[in-house]
């Protein structure tokens, strides 16, 4: 009986060990192997300038990225996962730069809007290509996922304002890029910020009239 109990304990320890190992592998996936994954993503993006998405083969992506098919399949099951992962990395890096810079400002501020426009401008060709091949919804869903992830648990109602802000800013950004950025980013940020301030002012005035 004592032997049976010790076997159960040993199995429990082994299971805990496997979970710890899985977590460590997850950390390696996100940190050590980021360069390889980004190479694969960039390879697919460059191929999109040469042929249709549906006609791009995995071997072509692997060759362009300088990796083997085996390495490719270590990370991805299909091409959509490549795009999704590349987009997620872009948004993650944006959040990191926003959170660690005092100059970015608060949510919805002029500095925050300007930073978003200038940051995503670096990846404009990729984002425009996603829209062109019918994956605009991928951008929207990925942004929404990050919005939900970073909303404090005690501020669930704030999610609607965050969705409104993120979706509106995305549309403004895409239109700005499509028009060839004829208007300076600083002017776009000023317009967006002014619009937000006007809405807040109208809301405040309505609340004051209700009190009268």
Structural summary, described in words:
The protein has 212 residues and is mostly helical. The protein is 77% helix and 0% strand. The protein has helices at residues 2-30, 34-48, 58-65, 69-75, 79-99, 110-121, 124-132, 136-149, 158-178, 185-211. Helix 2 crosses helix 3, helix 6 packs antiparallel against helix 10 (185-211) and helix 7 (124-132) packs across helix 8. The model is unreliable at 1-5, 17-26 and 198-206 (pLDDT under 50).
Summarize this, please?
The protein is mainly alpha-helical. It is built from ten helices and no strands.
**Beta-strand percentage?**
under 5%
Low-confidence stretches: 1-5, 17-26, 198-206
SSE pattern, N- to C-terminal: HHHHHHHHHH
**Helix content class:** over 70%
Number of helices: 10
Would you tell me the structural class of the helices and strands?
Answer: mainly alpha
Average of pLDDT: 80
Number of β-strand runs: 0
| N-end to C-end Cα span | 79 Å
Shape: globular
Which short descriptors sum up this protein?
77% helix; disordered N terminus; 212 residues; mainly alpha; 10 helices
Give the helices and strands, then pairings.
Layout: H1 2-30, H2 34-48, H3 58-65, H4 69-75, H5 79-99, H6 110-121, H7 124-132, H8 136-149, H9 158-178, H10 185-211
Helix pairs in contact: 2-3, 2-5, 5-8, 6-10, 7-8, 8-9
